[in-house]
Amino acid sequence: MTDAQPTTAPEPTVPEGLTVAVLGGTGPQGRGLARRFAAAGVRVVLGSRDAERAQATASDLAAATGGDVTGADNRGAARAGDVVVVAVPWDGHADLLAGLREDLAGRVVVDCVNPLGFDKRGAFALAVPEGSAAEQAAALLPDSRVVAAFHHVSAVLLEDPGVTTVDTDVLVLGEDREATDLVQALAGLVPGMRGVYAGRLRNAHQVEALTANLISVNRRYKAHAGLRVTDV
Amino acid sequence: MTDAQPTTAPEPTVPEGLTVAVLGGTGPQGRGLARRFAAAGVRVVLGSRDAERAQATASDLAAATGGDVTGADNRGAARAGDVVVVAVPWDGHADLLAGLREDLAGRVVVDCVNPLGFDKRGAFALAVPEGSAAEQAAALLPDSRVVAAFHHVSAVLLEDPGVTTVDTDVLVLGEDREATDLVQALAGLVPGMRGVYAGRLRNAHQVEALTANLISVNRRYKAHAGLRVTDV
């Protein structure tokens, strides 16, 4: 049926030729996200402190997915990306971003870092002076459009070639509608995954911290837990 | 098939004759939970500051569900309950519990309070000195077994007689396995609802605060959002 007056807005899409850079692209989370984006036909540039290591991982992912994946140091990747995913350990988060302020200007920066501590009783949320990793990124990158997303996606599932659909919603937070729409669309490229808008950055802390609860779920149920939002 | 050697532990169940008290039982969340428990055949005592108001609401719920629902003041309800659900506004949370310490001794106390603020930009998490409402309850009630649960269940859905299944998981947190098992079983009595263990009370803050994100989801998508945990 053709409909001259669509009653809903068109679904946001990922622009042709978009490049996604992944900082910390040689860690499990970054590598896993890069694999899925590459498999979905998105051009990916992996960033790492060590450019050679990034290139080696990129070659592996290109071979595994048939996608366009290259490697660079973090600065090179930041400059190459239209969307730049930050998937570094919390420990190095502030230092890395502070050093890339100009390189990341104008980019959509997607923070998926979970500030967690671990002890004998499991994982717990760390206090972050800015409120959350995402708000820290926004404070350090005033010329970027910071979005928080991809916190709860299991790296184990992302990296498993036998897992063809990643059965989870991705909570997407930010102040800039165009940027959150784009990141939702990017999530939607991965089979099984759906991007759901879930509020402003001031509400990012609990989304990051909830990863500690999912780790508890995983331990109790021997699972790789994800989240689905119902009624949406 | 009979199986002499079951391979999994038996599902925890709700003991026959268990009484659930709901403090703040005349508010939307308390009333909604009471309705669902009563409909599932659990004896319910509604508590309120105003015993007459609790009795009036209880009569309505008994008539609507065919269940066993009575009303009392909050102290009377606390004493009557084996499991006591705390569904009061955050404002009165500490004062109420501090005054009921002895009445609640030995009880499983289920805190479902979300410490949230609201402004023009929507909902946001309030800072709680103890970390979370549940940890505040645990600090004020050293002789009770405090569990955190039922934070994300939409009162609108709970109270809607046309909604026959409540399509959501309930994250259940606590230190006491027997108590969290019981609360999971209680959640499981409501059609569509499932209790999922989701960690210790030190990780309750983000579960409470996530309600702010679900409010953002509800606004954006005109929904009554709930959560499902995948792979469990």
Question: What is the secondary structure topology, with strand pairs?
Answer:
2 copies of one chain form a homodimer.
Chain A: E1 19-23, H1 28-39, E2 43-48, H2 51-65, E3 69-73, H3 74-80, E4 83-86, H4 93-98, E5 108-111, E6 116-119, E7 122-125, H5 133-140, E8 145-148, H6 155-159, E9 168-174, H7 177-188, E10 193-197, H8 204-221, E11 226-230
Parallel strand pairs in A: 1-2, 1-4, 2-3, 4-5, 5-8, 9-10
Antiparallel strand pairs in A: 6-7, 8-9
Helix pairs in contact in A: 1-2
H/E series of chain A, N to C? EHEHEHEHEEEHEHEHEHE
Greatest interface and its residue counts?
Answer: A-B, 39 and 39 residues
Give the oligomeric state: homodimer
- Distance from first to last alpha carbon of chain A: 24 Å
CATH architecture classification of chain A: 3-Layer(aba) Sandwich
Mean pLDDT value of chain A:
95
CATH topology of chain A: Rossmann fold
Q: Helical segment tally of chain A?
A: 8
CATH superfamily of chain A: NAD(P)-binding Rossmann-like Domain
Into how many domains do the coordinates of chain A divide? 1
The level 1 CATH classification of chain A is Alpha Beta
**Rg on CA atoms of chain A, Å:** 17 Å
Can you put this structure into words, describing what you see?
The structure is a homodimer of 232-residue chains. The first copy, chain A, is of the alpha/beta class and 232 residues long. Chain A has one domain (19-221): NAD(P)-binding Rossmann-like Domain (Rossmann fold, 3-Layer(aba) Sandwich). Chain A has helices spanning 28-39, 51-65, 74-80, 93-98, 133-140, 155-159, 177-188, 204-221, and strands at residues 19-23, 43-48, 69-73, 83-86, 108-111, 116-119, 122-125, 145-148, 168-174, 193-197, 226-230. The first copy, chain A, has an 8-stranded mixed beta sheet. Residues 1-7 of chain A have low confidence and may be disordered. Strand 11 of chain A pairs antiparallel with strand 11 (226-230) of chain B, so a sheet runs across the interface.
